[in-house]
Request: fold
Amino acid sequence: MLTVETRHAIHPEHAKGMDTGALRAHFLGQNLFADGEIRLIYTHYDRFTLGGAVPAGGTLTLDKVEETKTPSFLDRREMGIVNIGQAGTVSAAGETWTLQKGDVLYLGMGAGPVSFAGQGRFYITSAPAHRALPHRLITLADCVEVRMGAVETSNKRTIKQFIHPQVMESCQLVLGYTTLEDGSVWNTMPAHVHDRRMEAYLYWGMEPEARVLHLMGEPGETRHLFVANEEAAISPTWSVHAGAGIGGYTFIWAMAGDNVDYTDMEFVQPAELR
Reply:
């Protein structure tokens, strides 16, 4: 079963007048993971698409998605898949890959139908592509780790880069995930914006009762979302994206836009936030 929800682009002036319900309806992805289903959110932010596939021991196939008006979803797209559950397999273009928890699979443009099987919980990200690049499984042993922050500022964290120029080539999709050290709560501080790329965070590894206070909005006009486990925050190019959580958590960051330069961002110091 496939369901697709469309999210249209929101102007920052429009966002200023939104109440809590409207903010959550436009910028929060909920209920992405359901047994026996593929659920996608097709956004008008760089045509980025995110969602979940949970085969629950069976097989699910992602092929035609009406919103793209192409015979198969990846005809003009690339895809990054993160397994946040038990071991499972992904098959495409005549190949099958086994993904352990935390592994990432990149599928290049033209991969054809994509099948998900086993007990995995597969987080799906996708962006338009201009050429076909090799498919690649990137395991935890293959990623590049960057350690940032400090205990004193409550943001000591490890950034794992997977679909990233230091690891592999992609058209515009950049993806990895960040895990907080014990006692740290801020996933990114100082916050930042990057006008040339949108970004989405999927929060996972959280206890059911835990929440992340996710900051969004223009730096001088911030808003917030309370985000639960396996929910996604969608950030337009004009929005900051940072958060503080209760207990341990990891967030998967994925970006699409004009370039793949991870450092192309404008930092916003805490004193500048309003």
